[in-house]
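Obj: model holo form, ligand = copper (II) ion.
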Amino acid sequence: MEATMKVQGMTCGGCVASVTRVLKAVDGVDEVDVSLDAAQAHVRYDPARTGVPALRKAIEDAGYDVAA
Ligand SMILES: [Cu+2]
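Output (holo structure tokens):
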């Protein structure tokens, strides 16, 4: 399963690295592609192990906002 989330608050490559790291740390996440220009995170994950609420929480816990 794949999801694309709008991430607000990323301002530099460090932010991209942080968001990428926390998403990859979520159990069940296979692939992460975060774009600073597009202000979004594209995630491929195993729906049996995780879901958008957990991905969203990981991003928010890292200090960024996820647009609905
Ligand atoms: Cu930054």
